[in-house]
Amino acid sequence: VTVRADSSSKRDKGRRLDPSLLSTGRSLGSGSFGECYQGSLQDPETREDVPVVLKRVRARVAGAEEMHEAEHLINVLANKAAGEAVAPFLGYALVETPVGRLTKGLWLVWEYEGDKTLAYYLKRRDMERCLAADLGVDEEVAVATAMKQIFECLVALHKVGIIHRDIKPANIVFDERRRRFRLIDLGAAACLRTGTNYKPLETILDPCYCPPEEYVLPTDAPHLGDAGTRLRTVMTPLLWSQHKPDCFDTYSAGVVLMQLSLPFLRTTSSLRTFNGALARCNHDLEEWRGRSGLPARQTAILDANDGAGWDLAANLLRPRRVVTDGDGGVKFLDTGKAPRLTASQALKHAFVRSAGGARPKVAA
Ligand code: ADP
Ligand code: MG
């Protein structure tokens, strides 16, 4: 028996789909890195149309091609290892001859989960009621339940070495069939185990949800992307325990918790103002709270259960480490304070536990 080094994860691209089985419908937006459509995929055997999401890179954007490739590989990895956490990746299609909106290039295809992302709920005045109805839980625990599901998704991704890096309401989709939230858009995700899409100096982030340290690992940490598989097997766990790269995502989740809890934080401009104010308080949420003079009627979700929400948010929004700016590099230094919570620690927090353990019924 010959045992070969396993490089299959690098090459595994998932199922290749025949472009003639795909059709595009309404646009789901075109971010700076791609174009996204709702559409359908015809099952070659049953001939039934399955609702899907199709995404293609916009070739004009410098660097986007490579990111798209990375998004492809990360989706294969995430689906295999953390399938519950992300929208099911159905495969890819290489379009040679354009047909309508299916322009030439590489298309990635996912199962269509439903019309609502968390951004949709945040826009609604009756957010808690909507969220509770869709999740199948009581209104009082709607936010806690949504946060619980987000943390469960993060735990699953982090367990296999993937940092999402773009956690925000538009990238958290409500899976209508299973009645739960899942993560989408792995375009900025990095896998520290395989080195996929991990470049130490690269930041491709939404500033509204980005933690103050900005990087997954200190910029002077050994380069995981360049390291061979064997070296990474040793390095990744070491770097992980030393720097907690997963806490990049839990900061973003902390911002999401604040938006879900405080109605006035649901617009981009108010979120920007909040981020600036929090930074001026050295990311001490208690201090921000003291200065903000918020009326009690706005803070009910965070106040409940002896202020459990405030405590969770404060422990997610802490600086991971103090950021120093010596030679243009970023170092993470210990602040001496309690560290930012990981996703699995957050799941054990009283606020999240108030959601209870019952899983909503899955619609037939
Ligand atoms: P972008 O790189 O443009 O941000 P996303 O992967 O975030 O691309 O997709 C854009 C939008 O399309 C999402 O915000 C969401 O509204 C919708 N979307 C993406 N994937 C799915 C999915 N699997 N099911 C339902 N809607 C989706
Ligand atoms: Mg997105």
Automatic annotation (TrEMBL):
Basic and acidic residues biased stretches: 7-18
Domain Protein kinase: 22-352
Superkingdom field: Eukaryota
Residues involved in ATP binding: K55
Protein name: Serine threonine-kinase chloroplastic-like
Lineage start: Eukaryota, Viridiplantae, Chlorophyta, core chlorophytes, Trebouxiophyceae
